[in-house]
Design goal:
Number of helices: 3
Number of domains: 2
Radius of gyration: 19 Å
Largest sheet: none
Oligomer: single chain
Strand content: under 5%
Distance between the termini: 27 Å
Order of helices and strands: HHH
Shape: extended
Length: 83
């Protein structure tokens, strides 16, 4: 059982490395320049980080709710939580 857990964690780390490498290759120096100019200054960086976090959280919530609505009623989150 522990071997499956460690294998899964390893796969997550390897996937993260591949994703990081792919994004760096795809974006190149242009995206790095955009991020450098967009995050000049502490408060600007805080604002952009807060906005990005809010957008990502809301998209995760919307996709979770949409997925839950598509499931049959017997498997929905509300019926699973209420026991």
């Amino acid at each position: 059982m522990w071997s499956y857990i460690f294998a899964g964690i390893g796969m997550i780390f390897i996937g993260g490395q591949f994703l990081s490498f792919g994004v760096k290759q795809a974006a190149g120096t242009r995206l790095r320049a955009v991020f450098t100019t967009a995050t000049k200054g502490r408060w600007r960086t805080v604002g952009i980080g807060t906005l990005a976090g809010a957008l990502l959280q809301s998209t995760n919530a919307v996709s979770f709710m949409a997925f839950d609505w598509l499931l049959p009623p017997s498997t929905r989150m509300k019926s699973r939580l209420s026991g």
